[in-house]
Design a protein that fits this description.
about 70 residues; five-stranded antiparallel sheet
Length: about 70
């Protein structure tokens, strides 16, 4: 099982990090992004059921948080 998250980094950035956090805000996984835009596929088979949040960081940029629910 997997989910796909599209992303768009700021114009002046070609790299960033997508952080996947559990409901308590603890970072569970981090993924390097190496293009200004695209999509990231995340395997969810090894993640426990629950609610997760993700955020993209790039230098001084932080995206709004997205929400994922695994059942």
């Amino acid at each position: 099982t997997q989910i796909t998250i599209p992303y768009l980094l700021p114009d002046n950035s070609n790299e960033g990090t997508l952080l996947l956090m559990d409901a308590s805000g603890r970072t569970v996984k981090s993924y390097q992004l190496s293009n200004n835009s695209g999509s990231l596929s995340i395997q969810t088979a090894n993640l426990p059921r629950g609610t997760y949040f993700y955020m993209i960081e790039s230098f001084d940029y932080k995206s709004a948080k997205g929400k994922i629910m695994l059942q």
